[in-house]
Amino acid sequence: MSAIELDSVESVLKTLSIEDYEKLSGLLYGKGVSQISLKEDIVLLSHKYDIDVAIEKFSSQEEQLRSPRKTRVGLFQHKTPLPTWSRIKEMRDAMFKLAGEALEIAYKGGVNVFCFQEAWNMPFAFCTREKSPWCEYAEEAEHGPTTEFLKGLAKRYNMVILSSILERDSLHGDTIWNTCVVIDNHGEYLGKHRKNHIPRVGDFNESTYYFEGNTGHPVFKTEFGKIAINICYGRHHPLNWLGFALNGAEIVFNPSATTGGLSEPLWGVEARNAAIANSYYTCAINRVGTEVFQNEFTSGNGQPAHKDFGHFYGSSYVTAPNGSRTHGLSRTRNGLLIAELDLNLCRQVRDVWGFQMTQRLDMYADLLKEAIKPDFKPQIIEKS
Questions:
Q1: Theoretical Cys-Cys bridge with 324: which of 27, 30, 71, 98, CB 3.0 to 4.6 Å?
Q2: What's 175's domain CATH number?
Q3: Does residue 318 sit within a domain?
Q4: Is 245 a member of any domain?
């Protein structure tokens, strides 16, 4: 069976005996995570819209002074619904229809904060290095068509929505950014974050379209917790995750678009490790499917030209501050993962492990301050 045909790691584990499956699941996913049965109306909508749905719940300790701070997050991964060469309005309308279906299910599942995958409303076309028509997908973050469409749904469903798009900055020379827009549960624009780290590996070619972001590590205070967005490639940089922690994030979303041949062995590790190191929840969302383009492009590796970027392997998941995690969504299908979190667990884990108490920010800061100097000399001790 090829990797492209494999639906998920979980589908393989389920071929084990029930006893072995339960033992192995405890080792792989940790303790304190349980699956919640889907209500009939969600099952019907799942079949109607052809979207896999899973709901899982993290446990936490009951406290004497603080009431539980329960929040439900929704992670939506999906294929491009039309051929990549479809006209922009047709593609956008199809994406909006799909988004509306997923948000309807999320509402039925009690979701408070909903996050799309990276650049969700367009093909992930940067591999082509073509400017036309892909730059036409860029839109104003505050009032563009995608944001305006989602504002109405956010208000209707009382839901915070995180929408990763190409942003057109008309105030600064029509420059383009890779941006995640935050819409609050009243349907109002709350803010945006621009992608901090731009890949220079494989066929991503994103630096042809936009630069590294300039918004720092913002944390958005919502009615459902303090949230942040670490866009795609930023998950490879531990200090990027740390930046959101220092600003008080309780949940950090990682909307992504990454392919199997490059990053899949890292996928289940990085966001999970970030949750452990920073004592917050992480939500990793990846695009799914293989997108084929009209024109061939090369990869700069001596191999023949081709028309696809590779297989986006989905596998979206959520990790708790204690390192336990949900099962992953499918590698091949549209899916919505709903996870119930108790934000009190962030402090509970900090009290147990003391990572924040034992970290040495002063020492790291001194080293980093020196490391950026042109005359920096690494601290290497050797026998004279």
A1: 30
A2: 3.60.110.10
A3: yes
A4: yes
Question: Is 346 designated active site?
Answer: no
Q: Which of 118, 139, 167, 340 is catalytic?
A: 118
Which of 115, 232, 283, 346 is labelled catalytic?
A: 232
Please state the pTM of the whole predicted model.
0.96
At 361, the amino acid letter reads L
- Tell me, yes or no, if 232 is annotated catalytic: yes
- Tens of pLDDT, residues 276-331: 999 999 999 999 999 999 999 988 888 899 999 999 999 999 999 999 999 999 99
Secondary structure class of 19 (helix, strand, coil): helix
Closest alpha carbon to 224 in 189, 187, 250: 250
Is residue 176 predicted with pLDDT exceeding 60?
Answer: yes
Residue 135 has pLDDT above 60, yes or no: yes
Estimate the crossing angle of helix 238-246 against helix 260-278, to 10 degrees.
40
Question: Taking the CB of residue 375, how many other CB atoms lie within 10 A of it?
Answer: 5
Which of 108, 151, 195, 226 is catalytic? The answer is 195
Which domain does 252 fall in, by range? 33-371
Average pLDDT, the chain: 96
Count of the separate structural domains present in the chain: 1
Distance (Å, rounded) from C-alpha 187 to C-alpha 184? 6
User: How confident is the model over 189-199, as pLDDT tens digits?
Assistant: 999 999 999 99
Distance of alpha carbon 244 from alpha carbon 255, whole angstroms: 15
Report pLDDT for 14: 87
